[in-house]
Amino acid sequence: MAFTHLQIRSSYSFYQSIIKIPQLVKKAKEAGYDALALTDDSVMYGVVPFYKACLDAGIKPIIGIHVPIEAEGQVTKTLLLAENDIGYQHLIQLSTYLRTNDIVHLPLDSMEALAGGVIAIVPAHTMIQLQVDTWRSIFGERLYAGISPDEVRYLDDQMLDMWQQKHDLRFAATGDVRYLQKEDIDAYHCLLAIEEGATWEPARTGEGLQHHFRTQEEMEQLSDSALWQEALVQAGSIAERCTIQLQFDQRHLPAYPVPHGGQADAYLSEICKQRLEELYGNRQDAKERLAYELGVIKEMGFSDYFLIVWDFVRYAKEHGIRVGPGRGSAAGSLVAYVLGITAVDPLAYDLLFERFLNPERITMPDIDIDFSDYRRDEVIRYVHSKYGSDHVAQIITFGTFAARSLLRELIKTMEIPQADAAYLLKMIPNNMTSLSAGLRASEELTVYVKDSEQLKRLFRIGVKLEGLPRHVSTHAAGIVISADPLIKTVPLASGHDDVALTQFAMKELEQLGLLKMDFLGLRNLTLMDHVLNGLPKKPDMDSVPLDDEATFRLFREGRTNGVFQFESSGMKQVLRQLKPSAFEDIVAVNALYRPGPMSYIPVFIRRKHGEETISYPHANLAPILEKTYGVLVYQEQIMQIAASMAGYKLGEADLLRRAVSKKDADVLSKEETRFLSGCIDNGYSADTAKEVFSWIVKFANYGFNRSHAVAYSYLAYQLAYLKAHFPANFFAELMSGVANQPEKIRQYMREAGDSGIEVLAPSINKSFGKYTVENKNIRMGLLAVKGIGAQVVREIIQARKDGPFKHLFDFCIRVSLSKSALEQLVLAGAFDSMHVNRAAVLATIDKAMEQAELFKELYEQPSLLGEVEFEATYAEQEPFSSMTTLMHEKEVLGLYISSHPLASYRGDLRSSGRIAIQQLDTLPLKKQVRLAAVLLQQRTIRTKKGQPMAFLTLGDETGEMEAVVFPDLHRQIGRFLEEEALLDLSGRIEERNGERQLILQEGQLFREDMLEHGKERLFIRYDDIEEEEVLAIVRECAKQYPGNVPVIVVHKETRKSYQLSGAYHLELNHGTLGELRKHFGKENVAVSGQ
């Protein structure tokens, strides 16, 4: 028998191999192997993709694992191979046992029950030291002694031959493969060094440590020893013995425990019919639709599935866990609606069941459920408890080496010089998909790397390591439920909260016929929950009117921050143009605002407002397209057109929709023939049929799932309703949900301010942990203060139960905080209610803490307190300047709370022609503008030529915007592009992906002297001279004393005032004031802002 590789670790043996399965199978095929093994270290992560890849390549897959077995006080890494399906099952159980119990090694005697169908290959150098009979008693004739290529040079044929005859044990050659090409050894050893935190040493790569994938000829040439040649033959014989069959054509759907041992079909029908009558009364169309759906569900064998989903959704609702209105095509099912799984009426919204479950195409149903994210795990625990820990598991995912994180690891382990390291990290940004992409993107980087052998080696190694798995994680939503114990099909590993984790990823589980369900945690449902919990009287969210004027006004004005899927500035702009007046408008724009169909939004808007004639490919399509003004928006519309014109069943129409979206020429030709034939049979002309089919093909990729759009738009509408009617509560919870995202808080604060809601600084007497409503305003939570954690907040709230804090000294006596925490609270404004300036409170902290130590004993003996007169005396201290106060707030809160550095200068900025950021959306594209702004964030990248450019986030008191600094300007201003810098900028308004941005053309620091003059204004009052004379006097003065201070003239009698243009601005000095007072009188000339 020809040699077969029986010992190959893939990259799923983390840090022990750099082999990726597709490349492994390709390499084996090229080398002429007809069988191949995968044997990772105690795990089976790669079994299914390996098995399928081998079958596709015409190679026999062999499955095994390395297991550390303890015998006679010695631990041996033993290679176990599945000889048959029984052996495969035993490997699953062994791997599960190791990965769920954190077992370092297995005692040999514990293998006895799981040795059936398992071939064991023990390294020969170890085997000769062990009691062979003990191992043989467990594995029988399936026991071999293994010889690897690294050991072959040390073979003592005579000694081993004698030992073999004595123990009647066969030798088998193993490859011990960890990388594919011989030249991959550098990458492999670098990976080992990364795991060990060691420095990579090329000297370690001696010939004796080779683990590459050898051809059969190379294996034979390692030694001409008869023993080795026989071992090669035995490896082939073992491969012949190993045959397993994975089942991909079976379903492992769990059974719902129907009361009293009843049948799932009948029970589902009973529940649905009862609820149908409650919801629809005696409506015949509803009865017919339900009967049809139940028939399809029964025929496809999915009644248990629906009952399982109904059960855990019901559990969630009964326990106050908010459930979403539905997602995906499941919202098109009447059965799902009457069961309470979804909350949108499929009959009212003309949603199609066949888009969800198609009798013409048998696939597993897929109902994904949204829960409030902070309680999702309760539902998972319920399912785990109901169906048993053996039947429920969460799904594994793998974290991999990404380009930039790998680059950091390589820099460290290869000891790249600091200058080179800094340059590489600068040239490979966080969003770079791969190291090779980084080289392709920059000619400068390519040249830089080519000049260094060390860097060339780094990139050669990096390309081989990136994308390798490095750790396991848990899928964000996926749960698998099985009829039989999962261990019969899937190896398991330890998970969270006693819920196991599958060793197979989601795709492989679905291929094996296991039922996957998504339990998604949705932050927006948590937001809704928290808003409702804060209201004295909660509205029923499933009964809110869908024609509420306040809600539609909010949509029309684009005030949709916090409204699910309607938050982007581009979407807000569309809403302001569309001016939605019906729920269908909201559904349509939600479906259209995506790459591709977005280009049809202008047509949709024009037709809605009567600015463009609504047209249809054929008049008979009006009932299908009238809600979308003749624009093909939804996938379901394609299905309805095929059914209406060409006589398709809706299930067949769904197959047509899928086919045309794939644009396969052969399939398109067949479908076109059928469509045309059907249309002609129904009385349409061939030209009309061709026109409509071409139209369908054109729009097929753009169409969106209407069921999903309706369900998620319904959730968006509910949130908008809460925002429109309970704005303070909504904004408070919205801000609490993004407490660690200052840029979001700033955005929400501005919108709240536009609604007349003020966000107040944190307060030791009034704040709680999160943002709360206070007299129709919002009080910032104490958790927003840097360095203040939940435990500190609890202590403050607990102490406050004995009454509000009277002063800093009282606070220090009743709450034990560190000095730094106290300082943070003071600088955040939390002590402002003491009516002492922040600088004075800050300067008094040491004294207050000292006195608190003395007085704490008295507080613990209330009888003594009556004899003590406590007086709070603060240090004498000048208040902080406005700018210093704001900088402190930014430091401890991440944002400005009392004002904004530019707010007090807005009038002067306006008079000098500088716009506010909120004006950007109202100005035409390409317009040149000038503005002052604070630099909030910047991201620097390199162009293909290696030149730096930057993307900036700028802010003022009215909003935030993105700006681009191209290389030429970056060379001039890059040195002062630092966060919190005040900038004076000019540029051109552009639009990218529906978002306004500024292409900067000039920039400089906003100078201090500009800030100072910006606060001053010169007022002149006059009454007995003409306006022309006033202007002449000021004009002459401006020629002599030109400056930056605006002049405002006021008529004494009428009190009419106006600000003179920039040509009349003056410099303030004695000469200016003296000249003006000579003409107008001392009492009629005044300066504000000094």
Automatic annotation (TrEMBL):
The keyword Nucleotidyltransferase applies. InterPro entries: DNA_pol3_alpha_NTPase_dom, DNA_pol3_alpha_thumb_dom, DNA_pol3_finger, DnaE2/DnaE/PolC, DNAPol_HHH, NA-bd_OB_tRNA, PHP_dom, Pol/His_phosphatase_N. Its EC number is 2.7.7.7. It catalyses: DNA(n) + a 2'-deoxyribonucleoside 5'-triphosphate = DNA(n+1) + diphosphate. GO terms for molecular function: 3'-5' exonuclease activity; DNA-directed DNA polymerase activity; nucleic acid binding. Its main location: cytoplasm. Residues 4-71 form the Polymerase/histidinol phosphatase N-terminal domain. Keywords: DNA replication, DNA-directed DNA polymerase, Nucleotidyltransferase, Transferase. GO terms for cellular component: cytoplasm. Gene3D superfamilies: 1.10.150.870, Bacterial DNA polymerase III alpha subunit, thumb domain, Metal-dependent hydrolases. It is an enzyme of class 2 (transferase). The keyword Magnesium does not apply. It comes from the Bacteria. It holds the Pfam family PHP. It is found in: Cytoplasm. One of its GO terms (biological process) is DNA replication. Belongs to the DNA polymerase type-C family. DnaE subfamily. DNA polymerase III is a complex, multichain enzyme responsible for most of the replicative synthesis in bacteria. This DNA polymerase also exhibits 3' to 5' exonuclease activity. The alpha chain is the DNA polymerase. PANTHER family: DNA POLYMERASE III SUBUNIT ALPHA (PTHR32294). This is DNA polymerase III subunit alpha. It comes from Terribacillus halophilus.
